[in-house]
Amino acid sequence: MGVHDGVPEASASAPAVSGRIASIDALRGLVMVLMLLDHLRETWFLHVPVADPVDARTTLPAVALARLAVSLCAPIFIALTGVAAYLFGTRHSLAETRAYLLKRGLVLMALEVLYLSELYWGVASPTLWLQVIWCIGVCIIVLAALIGLPRPVLFAVGLLIVCGHNLLDPIHLQPDQPFFPVWAMLHQRDVIALPFWLIAKTTYPVLPWIGVIVLGYAIGPWFLPSVAVRTRERRFMALGFTMLGAFVLLRLANGYGDKPWFVVEGDAFRTTLSFLALTKYPPSLLFLLLTLGIGALLLVALERTRDASAVAALAVFGGAPMFFYLLHLTVLRLLYHGSAAVWGPTQGSVFGVASYGWILAWYVGLIVPLYWPTAWFSRFKASRRDIACLRYL
Fold first, then answer.
1. Cβ–Cβ under 8 Å, residues 328 and 36
2. What is the pLDDT of residues 208-220, one digit of tens each?
3. What pTM was estimated for this model as a whole?
């Protein structure tokens, strides 16, 4: 969802296409494609609830593994949004960059409240769901305020938030206490009463994600043309393995960074699930170490891949991520309501499928139909740089 047009270098095996860094677009596209799988589950398999973190004792193995894979989406996407903001700033003044980020953040917040919340939960619903697009919008606006700080300070701020926010977990405010709405937005997943009988659900508390986007911005210089591709790859390899090593050590210690894991007697698979079952709302330190560590290694893999067609295909989704996000959610809602109108509720009070295999079948069946309009829009966006509003999609 970030803009980084005009940065000339990508990698030896994944060159810049139309002025974009192909490996960034491809990694963003990969997480968008993974996101489709999770949203299909939320469409056709909503009658099978998934806890946060998943319950290793009871969750379906296929759902748990898929949930683990799609956990990569938000951390990688928000980190790349920070990278993209830095690269945008290399071609614009500080004031221009701040103005763009402010407008972009407000557009995303408006889309969440005015379109996505109604799309998913109905126009008549009194609930505003402040989900990932709202969260990204808030993070971008906060980043706009911080980008004038020296890079070492940004690193320190990002690390302090990501590594230290779990110390705030014991703080739990009640609705009648001062600063409850602010704290519910920042770190406490909760419900906020609004005027006119409306309520807002803070699905994505933003504080840890602010740390992620700030760190993404701080590593933006690694993508400058002056940095050799192999140097960037070595940095991301070191970063990825360091984060994964820190994850393993902290998780084995079972003391800080997330809820404790446990041994399921006689079941090594579910014990492993418990070890990997991490908190996303808000994202724990261990959740971010695992997902961003994998993301760093995936970026290197995409830069080194010899399959240019796969990188190019993923880059299509990553080159127009907001368009794809709005498109696939709209398609899924139309399919759901159409099916419910024809066949009625099939799983309790909702329409759904009986097995997770059908989710995978829908996933395979929808990727190509969603690819073609996204590819068309990506080409249109690249060819019409004179249309300023396209930069927000």
1. yes
2. 999 999 999 999 9
3. 0.92
